[in-house]
Amino acid sequence: MAALATIPSANEIWTWLEEVPDPEIPVVSVVDLGIVRNVGWEGGDLVVTVTPTYSGCPATAVISFDIAEALRRRGLNNVRIKTQLSPAWTTDWIGDKAREKLKAYGIAPPAGGARCVGDLKNPIVECPHCGSMATEQVSRFGSTPCKASWRCRDCLEPFDYFKSF
Amino acid sequence: MTTVLKTDTALLELALRMGDNALILGQRVGAWCGHAPVLEEDIALANVALDLIGQTKLWLSLAGEVEGKGRSADDLAFLRDVRAFRNALLVEQPNGDFAQTLMRQFLFDAWHLPMLRALKTSADARVADIAEKAEKEARYHLERTEDLIIRLGDGTEESHLRMQGALDALFPFAGELYAADAIDAELAARKIAPELATIGDAYLSYLKGALADATLTAPFDAVARRGGKQGLHTEELGFILSDMQWMQRAYPGAKW
User: Fold this and answer.
1) Which ranges in chain B belong to alpha helices (H)?
2) Which of A5, A70, A123, B149 counts the highest number of beta carbons within 10 A?
3) Cβ–Cβ gap B143/A165 under 8 Å
4) Chain B residues touching A141 at Cβ < 8 A
5) What is the pLDDT of residues B214-252, one digit of tens each?
6) pLDDT one-digit tens code per residue, B167-216
7) For residue B64, what are the contacts with CB-CB under 8 A and spacing of at least 6?
8) Which residue of B has its CA nearest to A61?
C-alpha cells in the first residue's frame, strides 16, 4: 500500500477503528467495547492504546493484530499498539448503541446500563429473545471470559449475559 | 563510565510471589478442564484458570523487567527449577476431590482479594496497575467460591463431610499467605506492598464469618506450614513442573 499523502486526523482513525469487529462478538467493534483507549502520533508512529478486557482473554492478541492490520489497509504502516492496564477496563464503557447491538445478537447487555435493573451482584437481566424479566443465572461463567450463562423461565431459552465488570 | 543498575531484589521477589501463586494455581485448576462434576463448573474452573494465567503473564513480565536479564514471562514460567519458584505451599496442593479444589480456591481467593486491593496503592506504579486489573477478577472469583463453600458446607451430610475434611487438610497452608519475612517487611517499609499482618487480620475475620455461614470449623490453632515463598516446596511442585515444563525442556525454544 502506498504511503498516504496527508496524515489522517485522530477522528478519522477512530472512525476506521469503529469498523474493526471484536473477534469473539463480531457484532460490536473494538471501539464499542471500550478496548481502544487512545489514538495519537508519536514522532512518525501512530500509537493506538488498548486495554485488555480480562487479563487472560485470548482475544487480546488477535485484537491488537486486527487493529494494526486494519490501519495498514488504510495505508498506515508505522503503527504501534500500546497496552495500558489502568484504569482497568469496565463494562461501563460499553455505550447504549453497542448494548442494543449485543441484545439484537442474542447477548444480554451488562447490568448498570440503560436496560438493566437490580444490583450488579444480583442483576435482573432481560431475556434477549422474548424480553421477559423472569430469568436466572445458570453459571457465573460462560463461553468467553466476559460472559455468564443464563436462561429464561418464560421462553425457556438459554442465553449469554455479558457480565457487568 | 558505565552505571551498573542494582536489581531491586525485594520488588523482584514480590512479582515472583504474586506471579507464581497465579501460575501454579492456574495450572492446577486448568487440569479440571473436561473433568469437573458438572458442565457449568467445568466452564467456571477453566475461566478462573484463564484469569490466573493472564495475571501470571502480567506479574512475570514485571519480574523479568525488574530482574533486567532479558528473561520473558515464558522463560520464567517454563525454565526455572523448583527451588526458584516463590508460590505459597497452598496453591501447589493436589486437586483431590471437588471439595479440596474448591476449598483451596476459597482460601486463596479470600486472601488474594484484600492483598490485591492493598497493592492498588503500591508506591510502584507497575504493581498498582496490575493489582487494579487483577482485583476485579479476584473479586468475581471470591463471589463464586464463597457461594459454593456455603452451599456445600451447609448442604448434605456428604458434602459437609467433604468440605470439612478439605478445610482440615488445607487450612494449615493458609497461614503462609500472611506470614511476613524480611522481604515483606522491606516492601511494606517502602510502601510497595502492605503490612501482611493487616491483610492477615482482615483475612481471618472474613474467614470466620464465611466459614460459620458454611457450618464449617477451621483449625485456627493449627501450626502454619511455610517455606514456599522462600523456595522450599512440598514434593507436589516438582510433579506440576515436570508436567508443565516438559515440552520446553525436551524441545528447547519450541514455538507454536
Assistant:
1) 9-30, 39-67, 73-78, 89-92, 98-119, 125-153, 157-170, 182-189, 196-213, 236-250
2) B149
3) no
4) 40, 43-44, 46-48, 144
5) 999 999 999 999 999 999 999 999 999 999 999 999 999
6) 999 999 999 999 999 999 999 999 999 999 999 999 999 999 999 999 99
7) B70, B71, B72, B73, B75, B76
8) B54
